[in-house]
Amino acid sequence: MVSRPLRVAVVGGLGHAPTGDYHQTRYYGSPRDRGRGELVRLEQALRAGGIDRVVIRTRWNSHSATTRIRRVCRALGIPCELTSISGAGDGASVAAVAKARAIT
Question: Which domain CATH number covers 18?
Fold first, then answer.
């Protein structure tokens, strides 16, 4: 049986580093960086079933944006975790966190 890659949404920050082939990663900028439209786009993807897990980079998101995303995830039963990872190797770091937490 072939399983499809896990679809992970990373919210906040602007890095687009490769994260390996064990999952697909979609990046959504924070409202401050990209405007409120990114939150709307993320919510639509969550409600449409296009995202399996959410990783929120707290360094780049406001409390209200983080709360809003977490509420939607909770209502839909989608795992959501917070991370304070930052720096130049951001994308690779998110991949390492994901792998370490058994997101396969």
Answer: 3.40.50.10700
